[in-house]
Amino acid sequence: MAMESKSRKRRRPMANPAPLGLFGFAITTFVISCFNAGFFGVGVSDPINVVVTLGVFYGGLAQAAAGILEFSYGDTFAATAFTSYGAFWLSYAALFIPWFGVSEGYKSALGDTSHAQYVFSHAVATFLLAWTIFTYIMTVGSTRTSAALCTLFCLVALTLTLLTIGAFGHFHKVHRAGGVVGIITAIVAWYNALAELLDSQQKPIIRLPTGNLHQEATVENDDCD
């Protein structure tokens, strides 16, 4: 038992995976939102190859890995959020990777026609709708975390809502609005990531306020004790 306790003391505490997950989400969201908003000389009709690579490796694999590590942390909300949104980026990227044959499947079944493109675009819109519903559910859960994180989920929900409406109705202005809100969402995600990163350091140069939303509940529990 003595040897076991000494070995435990020598172990370093596990690093906080939250900054990795938040940075992966922020950067991927920022890049795709630039396409959706038509910023920096890119537009909706341009190839999204860069977004696909980010969606696979950083927004997808890295963020999902952060979510899996959050299970070890015992943080169910963060684990669910990071793993789910990591899977979101991976699945979204798969829609546009020829090897998966998603869009080609619609063409082979319906022919290379405008109707096939219409059905595929509405299928993507349904995909976005499902993730919009999921995000609103997670937004409810975020009300017990921090004001900064809750703000992030509200913006993600708004972004996906606009993109879903734009996809179903082919409303280009609504789609571009979703891109603009998505860029703001990425900035807020960067803020949350930096706050987590600084808070994980032993002697941070500064601490960014995030606004603890569950402090009142903790005080009530302490009073009950």
Automatic annotation (TrEMBL):
Major localization class: membrane
A GO MF label: acetate transmembrane transporter activity
Keyword Oxidoreductase: no
UniProt keyword terms in alphabetical order: Membrane, Transmembrane, Transmembrane helix
Bilayer topology annotation: Multi-pass membrane protein
Cellular localisation: Membrane
InterPro entries given in the database record: AceTr, Gpr1/Fun34/SatP-like, GPR1_FUN34_YAAH
GO cellular component: a single term: plasma membrane
Source organism, top-level taxon: Eukaryota
A Pfam short name: Gpr1_Fun34_YaaH
Transmembrane segments: 20-42, 48-69, 76-99, 119-137, 149-171, 177-198
PANTHER family the record matches: ACCUMULATION OF DYADS PROTEIN 2-RELATED
Family: Belongs to the acetate uptake transporter (AceTr) (TC 2.A.96) family.
Protein name: Uncharacterized protein
Biological source species: Ceratopteris richardii (Triangle waterfern)
